[in-house]
Specification:
Blueprint lengths: L19 E4 L4 E6 L5 E4 L12 E5 L16 E2 L2 E6 L1 E8 L4 E5 L6 E6 L4 E7 L2 H12 L12 E3 L7 H14 L5 E4 L20 H9 L4 E7 L2 E2 L5 H9 L13 E3 L2 E4 L6 H10 L1 H4 L5 E5 L7 E2 L3 H6 L6 H4 L11 E4 L2 E4 H4 L3 H16 L5 E4 L2 E2 L7 E3 L7 H16 L5 E2 L1 E2 L8 H11 L5 E3 L16 H13 L1 H13 L5 E3 L7 H5 L4 E3 L3 E3 L9 E6 L3 E6 L4 E6 L2 E6 L5 E6 L4 E3 L15 E3 L4 E5 L13 E5 L2
Parallel strand pairs: 5-22, 11-12, 11-26, 12-13, 13-17, 17-21, 21-23, 23-24, 25-26
Antiparallel strand pairs: 1-2, 2-9, 3-6, 4-8, 6-7, 7-10, 8-9, 14-16, 15-16, 15-18, 19-20, 27-28, 28-29, 29-34, 30-33, 31-32, 31-34, 35-36, 37-38
This protein binds alpha-D-glucopyranose.
The site of alpha-D-glucopyranose (GLC) has 9 residues, from loops.
């Protein structure tokens, strides 16, 4: 069966070297004995920090905003484990169906993986977790590379309805002199949430509007949802029905489920022709000058269906753990795909749905646009990183969500999702000033840096808070660091490398191996963000001598610091980061947007002598090694 899977062309071992396998009636059970010192990395978009020991995780893509440590599933499935002790064993469980991972659960000292028999297992080994991760990254293919403007700051909110709301955001940022490159259009830009339509009352001439925004250095990035509204007259619906491109129900009719527009059909992204057709629909917006999209509700999220009914949707919280794994678990056993002419139950291939939506969009956008585009998705599977980025879904304005964001980033990089980030400031709930500033100070280092929030929450655009100088300081640091962020990202993509790594991937000492609140960003920087409410200082571990860089909105102050523990004070207007021994970080003057940021005019910080900088026009598809130049200290 060709599920259109994204990595299944990989070679797999005939017999497993590191795992005991037991065949049960409906599943395979894999067991691995852990040593005490082993750290278990992996699983991408999951809760509970960098080291996965002690938890139970379920790969079954889920639309669920409760990102607590006992939530077994989030929006993506990334079935990679890296067991790092004396050497490292990596294993990838490639299955589009549900997979359960118990990692030293209840202190069992074992990893137990249970999954569908439709699995391909790829074992890898190497000297350490970093080496094995790079082997895995080389197997799954090169990361998506968005245009330069996508590395600028983005502002979003569910609730911007019409042109004047977007104008207010553009003016708010430009008047406060806080840099901004893009603004998201959430579902209200559409005509009654119908994909590929524009509400003409709210945006009378989107083409002209997108053009006028662009002249201010701002791109518009509309949302596209997976479900297509069932409504005669909706072109996408009519075409999809005519060509047999929608998922079917038990009786062979079309499956109907309610999402934002009311009743919808789901495109059957497993059919190559359907992908081509759906991807081509994006042309309706690219024809209006749009160069970026976010794909949403593609687990797929289901509010209720004609099978499970409204009552299911109104049931507040599922009572058993297995039900908790997804709010639409019953529906996923109620519809079918047409895969190579065979009817396949959605549940069996569930985890690929969102990834294939991203693939559908990406493959066609690549054909229709002359340059690179921005695309990021909520749901994903390993391999989708070749087609777009991801954001980490509906988090909340709470300190523990910032902590989770910090700890999740390296895991996302292990499975290829370099272009990723969280809703800065939190999606649900009300974001206070201190949390927003600390969160921005972390997001300044993540490739996707977007402030996004839910309708009815406190408005959280940076210019709404008092003391905008502090916000300008932090966001402008991002723009000063762009030559570094952009270069490190592109080099990581070109070289099959990670952009954000745990400390333990580069430093073998036990303290570094176990630190979860400091990260390596690119090859030169170490960050130690403040992620605790009220904290004015924190302890930082320096595994070697480094240059401490402090930025406070005025300039960079640098100081050589010896190896060891150190307590640092960090004001709300400040960012402190570290440059590794013998390395450099290029910084430029920054600007109000990427188009006005001179990436060539750089100064090198750090005690190294030179830096390998990637430079291009910011959108060429021809991203190559030859565009990397050596910049030397003056
Ligand atoms: C989903 C998305 C969120 C978006 C909302 C409305 O909850 O995750 O980002 O704002 O839908 O479209």
């Amino acid at each position: 069966m060709d599920t259109g899977a994204l990595v299944r062309d990989a070679e797999s071992a005939e017999t497993l070297r590191y795992w005991q396998v037991e065949e049960k009636e409906n599943e395979l059970v894999f067991v691995y004995e852990l040593a005490e010192r082993d750290i278990v990395y992996g699983l991408g978009e999951q809760v509970r920090g960098i080291n996965k020991r002690g938890g139970r995780y379920v790969s079954y893509n889920t639309d669920n905003p409760h990102h607590t440590d006992d939530m077994p599933s989030l929006y993506g499935s990334h079935n990679l484990l890296l067991i790092d002790g004396d050497g490292c064993v990596g294993t990838f469980f490639d299955t589009p169906a549900k997979a359960i991972f118990e990692v030293d659960y209840h202190g069992s000292g074992k990893i137990v993986v249970r999954c569908d028999k439709n699995v391909k297992v790829v074992e890898m080994d190497g000297a350490n977790a970093y080496a094995v991760t790079r082997e895995f990254l080389s197997l799954i293919g090169r990361s998506f590379i968005p245009p330069l403007w996508a590395f600028g700051f983005g502002q979003s909110r569910w609730g911007y309805k019409r042109q004047k709301d977007i104008d207010a955001v553009a003016d708010g940022y430009r008047n406060a002199d806080i840099p901004l490159d893009w603004i998201c259009l959430d579902i209200d830009y559409m005509d009654r949430y119908i994909d590929f339509t524009v509400n003409k009352k709210r945006f009378p001439d989107l083409k002209e509007y997108a053009e006028s925004m662009r002249s201010r250095g701002l791109r518009l990035v509309p949302i596209i949802d997976a479900g297509v509204k069932v409504e005669p007259g909706n072109e996408t619906y009519e075409e999809g029905v005519k060509r047999g491109y929608f998922c079917t129900n038990h009786e062979g009719g079309l499956f109907k489920a309610a999402v934002w527009p009311g009743m919808t059909h789901f495109p059957d992204f497993f059919q190559p022709k359907c992908r081509e057709w759906f991807g081509n629909e994006y042309r309706k917006l690219t024809d209006m000058g749009i160069e970026g999209f976010w794909n949403d509700m593609n687990e797929p999220a289901i509010f209720y269906s004609e099978y499970t009914g409204v009552l299911n949707a109104l049931t507040p919280s599922p009572s058993t753990e297995s039900e908790k794994e997804t709010n639409a678990y019953k529906d996923y056993r109620n519809f079918y795909h047409n895969i190579d002419g065979k009817r396949v139950l959605h549940d069996k291939v569930h985890n690929l749905f969102g990834a294939l939506m991203t693939r559908a969009a990406s493959e066609q956008l690549d054909k229709m646009l002359p340059g690179r585009f921005l695309l990021f998705s909520r749901s994903s599977y390993v391999g989708a990183h070749r087609y777009g980025g991801i954001w980490t879904g509906d988090n909340a304005s709470a300190w523990d969500h910032l902590v989770r964001n910090v700890k999740m980033m390296p895991s996302l990089n292990m499975v290829g999702f370099l272009y990723s980030g969280a809703d800065t400031g939190g999606f649900g709930g009300n974001c206070g000033r201190e949390l927003m500033l600390r969160w921005l100070a972390f997001s300044a280092f993540t490739p996707l840096m977007r402030n996004h929030s839910a309708i009815l929450t406190r408005k959280q655009e940076c210019y709404r808070y008092s003391g905008t100088d502090d916000f300008r300081s932090i966001v402008s640091l991002r723009y000063k660091l762009l030559p570094y962020i952009y270069s490190e990202y592109v080099k990581a993509a070109l070289h099959g490398d990670m952009y954000i790594k745990p400390l333990g991937f580069e430093y073998a000492d036990e303290r570094s191996r176990n630190i979860e609140d400091q990260l390596l960003v690119g090859d030169s920087i170490m960050i130690a963000p403040i992620i605790e409410k009220g904290a004015k200082d924190r302890v930082v571990w320096l595994p070697e001598e480094m240059t401490e860089v402090r930025y406070d909105g005025n300039g960079f102050e640098c100081e050589q610091i010896p190896k060891g523990l150190r307590r640092i004070q960090v004001g709300l207007n400040e960012v402190v980061f570290y440059i590794r021994k013998g390395r450099c970080v290029p910084v430029c003057k920054g600007g109000p947007c990427t188009a006005k940021t001179d990436m060539r005019d750089v100064v090198l910080l750090g005690d190294g002598e030179e830096y390998r900088q990637y430079i291009d026009d910011g959108f060429t598809k021809d991203v190559r090694e030859e565009n990397i130049i050596t910049v030397k200290k003056a």
